[in-house]
Specification:
By secondary structure, this protein is α+β, with helices and mostly antiparallel strands. Helix content is 25%, strand content 21%. This is DUF6316 domain-containing protein.
Length: 67
């Protein structure tokens, strides 16, 4: 777990869990919005999937909400 403050955070660092989890032999990632994506064949593949997801989110206009 990362115990450093993120940019803009002050005070005690909140609890953070891994974005990656395994069910059976399949890997998934979860987003802050509560979206789970997968299954992936390996954690490496799930990490690639998360990077792709974050890249797409960066391309969205600022007025698009992901709730």
């Amino acid at each position: 777990m990362d115990t450093r403050n993120r940019h803009g955070e002050q005070g005690t660092v909140p609890f953070r869990s891994s974005r990656f989890f395994c069910v059976g032999s399949k890997w998934y990632f979860t987003t802050r919005e509560g979206f789970d994506s997968g299954p992936f064949a390996s954690r490496d593949r799930a990490e690639i999937g998360l990077r792709r997801f974050l890249h797409v989110v960066e391309l969205l206009p600022d007025d698009v909400a992901l709730h």
